[in-house]
UniProtKB/TrEMBL annotation:
<feature type="domain" description="3-hydroxyacyl-CoA dehydrogenase NAD binding">
    <location>
        <begin position="326"/>
        <end position="505"/>
    </location>
</feature>
<dbReference type="InterPro" id="IPR050136">
    <property type="entry name" value="FA_oxidation_alpha_subunit"/>
</dbReference>
<dbReference type="InterPro" id="IPR008927">
    <property type="entry name" value="6-PGluconate_DH-like_C_sf"/>
</dbReference>
<feature type="domain" description="3-hydroxyacyl-CoA dehydrogenase C-terminal">
    <location>
        <begin position="509"/>
        <end position="588"/>
    </location>
</feature>
<dbReference type="Pfam" id="PF00378">
    <property type="entry name" value="ECH_1"/>
</dbReference>
<keyword id="KW-0520">NAD</keyword>
<keyword id="KW-0560">Oxidoreductase</keyword>
<keyword id="KW-0443">Lipid metabolism</keyword>
<dbReference type="InterPro" id="IPR036291">
    <property type="entry name" value="NAD(P)-bd_dom_sf"/>
</dbReference>
<dbReference type="InterPro" id="IPR029045">
    <property type="entry name" value="ClpP/crotonase-like_dom_sf"/>
</dbReference>
<keyword id="KW-0276">Fatty acid metabolism</keyword>
<keyword id="KW-0442">Lipid degradation</keyword>
<keyword id="KW-0456">Lyase</keyword>
<keyword id="KW-0511">Multifunctional enzyme</keyword>
<comment type="similarity">
    <text>In the central section; belongs to the 3-hydroxyacyl-CoA dehydrogenase family.</text>
</comment>
<dbReference type="InterPro" id="IPR006176">
    <property type="entry name" value="3-OHacyl-CoA_DH_NAD-bd"/>
</dbReference>
<comment type="pathway">
    <text>Lipid metabolism; fatty acid beta-oxidation.</text>
</comment>
Length: 688
């Protein structure tokens, strides 16, 4: 196959038109990128799209315009390379050819004698943002939804000039943040205002008349009436910033993400190398990474997040969903208050919290108001929206306020008896069709609803902390939960902008069950006598977002001990109960202080005399994960292994380069050795 042949490519065409601009004696050449679909299928570049852009630039230059501008279809500039075609590449030379083609076409805008502009009207990611960086000037819409160079998270590098252009435009500290740090923070996006402040854009314009204002601004630049000044890049700090970045990567990833280290090398090259040398280095790095296992896992994870998360497996017909015009929240603690803010912001309906006394209610409502005030002060929310939200969130000590609620969720103490009591009381108050949702992290939905008159309307609605950040929502179907309740839960989850996964009513569901098994294995090694620092660093080669003890501290030792106890009751042969974990929970002391293990906590432990090596701890943990995942799939906890991976990525922050978890277990041979077979077919998330 030729690298220039992409039979399945949805070609993004570069549509050229001449535009008369007031104040200029010649028309401007406006190139609009458009793949023929609406914003739900963004523009991307494969060989056909690059060829179309190349032809449009040739035609534009031939017309001798006042300037050339590139923009995109509504809401979308361009989201980069067509990564779906990468697995079809058969050899390294084809990968090099793709890199060189993009560089050659984009460089025509950089090297043009005619002024070139990028009118970034919407989402610009990866190669799309790199295209904009090649233009002499850039306008940016304040409504652009996504701005990023996310390649490192997938196992790639910005391969069309980004590593060379960006640091020399905005400086090495900011470029390192955009190219390496943000992708490794669950693909953090830049806000338009932030991108403009960094210097990625020369001017930020409102979306309502963005194209008209961009043309006017560009005409001002061409006429010499608008002067674009850019601060000189400080190269004295270059080496120091990259040294610190490499140390940070070593501490966090321990060599587990080759693309991050390749990106660092390319940023180092950008300091002194000429552009041709730097882009040739990008080509070589890209060709190396295209045939890596990490990229295959990254592409698999990307597909899960972009496609499967939007079409939850097993979700009922959305037409069965009931409207939700008011939400009730039982509890006014931190979790309940976070939920109140989220529901009010996303659903734009009245939200009322209740608790045992007025002081708790006031504290919960006060938390919501404080968060709204913070959002306004930081420019993340306008005062009109804030005023509306203030009016939507209220509190009461009288549960009768739930009488007209369509959806009530409880966030009370994690005790089955307490939750059953809550529902028994509420059932006498709410409407017969009101959905009763529980945020339980481990308890049985079926048991919780067993004594109710209408158990069919109880559903698990398990969020992950922090609620505003982690996108996963485990929706748990009890044995008697009906389709209308489930459809309403999925509809609400979508309104909340969460990625929902349907889960069977099984102990601790997906994420907590796997993390408890994982942490339990690590802590069992501590109980045997393995030093805390050895157990804590044993999983470093995986490049997980947190070491085990930091994760345990985030979850909370008391919560971990409670969930572990629930799972021990269900599966005593696989989930042990650690008295050392109980000692830590009872002490109330932090396990980790400033990334160092707390010596005072270490003194509390009573351990055996059979310590394990770090490698043994790691293999035990991986073996335990493989066994538990196989059992969960056999039990039908989720539909497929892909849902396990989606949950681990979105709910636990496990990285793309692992593909969540099952691709890593497959490629290391762990799944076949422990369970007798792979979780995924060969080639789905691996080279072979």
């Amino acid at each position: 196959m030729s690298a220039l042949a992409a039979p399945n490519e949805v070609v993004t065409k570069a549509l050229l038109r001449q535009v008369a601009v007031p104040g200029l004696d010649r028309p401007a050449a406006l190139i609009t990128l458009d793949n023929g679909f609406d914003h739900t299928k963004p523009n991307s570049f494969g060989p056909g799209g690059l060829t179309s852009l190349d032809e449009a630039i040739t035609a534009a230059l031939a017309a001798e315009p006042a300037f050339i501008a590139v923009t995109g279809k509504p809401y979308i500039f361009c989201v980069g390379a067509d990564i779906t075609s990468l697995p079809a590449l058969e050899n390294r030379e084809q990968a090099l050819e793709i890199g060189r083609l993009g560089h050659r076409v984009f460089a025509r805008l950089k090297d043009s004698a005619v002024p070139t502009f990028a009118f970034v009207n919407g989402a610009a990611m990866g190669g799309g943002l790199e295209l904009a960086l090649h233009c002499h000037y850039r306008t940016l819409s304040a409504g652009a939804a996504a701005l990023a160079l996310p390649e490192v998270s997938l196992g790639l590098i910005p391969g069309w000039g980004g590593t060379q252009l960006l640091p020399n435009l905005i400086g090495i500290p900011a470029a390192t943040q955009v190219i390496i740090q943000n992708p490794l923070m669950q693909n953090k996006m830049l806000k338009p205002k932030q991108a403009a402040e960094m210097g990625i854009a020369d001017v930020l314009l409102e979306p309502a008349d963005f194209l008209e204002r961009s043309l006017e601004w560009a005409a001002g630049v061409v006429r010499g009436e608008v002067t674009v000044t850019r601060p000189e890049v400080d190269k004295d700090m270059w080496a120091g910033v990259l040294y610190f970045a490499r140390q940070t990567l070593d501490q966090r990833l321990h060599g587990a993400v080759p693309s991050a280290y390749k990106a660092l090398d390319l940023l180092e090259t950008a300091k002194d190398a000429d552009f041709a040398t730097g882009t040739a280095a990008e080509d070589e790095a890209l060709a190396d990474l295209v045939f890596s296992e990490e990229l295959r896992s990254g592409l698999y994870a990307f597909d899960l997040v972009q496609r499967r998360a939007k079409r939850p497996a097993g979700a009922p017909d959305k037409g069965l969903a009931r409207p939700v015009t008011k939400v009730g929240i039982v509890g006014a603690g931190l979790m309940a208050s976070q939920l109140a803010l989220l529901f009010a912001r996303r659903l734009q309906v009245p939200v009322v919290m209740t608790d045992l006394d007025q002081s708790r209610v006031d504290k919960g409502v006060g938390y919501v108001h404080t968060q709204i005030e913070k959002a306004v002060s930081k420019g993340r929310m306008d005062k009109g929206t804030a005023a509306k939200l203030y009016g939507l969130v209220s509190g009461s000590v009288d549960k009768s306020v739930f009488a007209d609620a369509d959806f009530v969720i409880e966030a009370v103490f994690e005790d089955l008896g307490v939750k059953k009591q809550v529902w028994a009381e509420l059932e006498k108050i709410v409407k017969p069709e009101t959905v009763l949702a529980t945020n339980t992290s481990s308890l049985s939905i079926t048991e919780m609803a067993a004594e109710l008159e209408h158990p069919e309307r109880v559903v698990g609605f398990h969020f992950f902390n922090p609620v505003a950040v982690l996108p996963l929502l485990e929706i748990v179907r009890g044995e008697r939960t009906d389709d209308a309740t489930l459809a309403t839960a999925f509809a609400v989850g979508k309104q909340l902008k969460k990625s929902s996964v349907l889960v069977k009513d099984a102990p601790a569901f997906v994420v907590n069950r796997l993390l408890t098994r994982f942490l339990g294995t690590v802590f069992a090694a501590v109980d045997q006598g393995t030093p805390l620092d050895v157990a804590n660093s044993a999983l470093d080669p995986l490049g997980l977002p947190m070491r085990p003890l930091a994760l345990l501290q985030l979850v909370g030792p008391a919560v971990a001990y409670h969930v572990g106890g629930t799972l021990h009751e269900a599966f005593p042969d696989r989930f042990g109960v650690s008295e050392n974990l109980k000692r830590i929970a009872d002490s109330g002391q932090p396990i980790v202080v400033d990334d160092q293990i707390n010596d005072e906590v270490a003194k509390l432990l009573v351990v055996g005399d059979e310590p394990l090596t770090g490698e043994q701890v790691r293999q035990n943990a991986l073996d335990a994960l493989a066994q538990e995942i196989r059992l969960m799939l056999d039990e039908g906890v989720v539909a497929e292994a892909q849902d396990i991976d989606l949950c681990m990525i979105l709910g636990a922050g496990w990285p793309f380069h692992l593909g969540g978890v099952t691709p890593y277990l497959d490629r290391t041979g762990t799944s076949e050795r422990v369970t007798g077979k792979r979780f995924l077919p060969r080639g789905v998330a691996s080279l072979r």
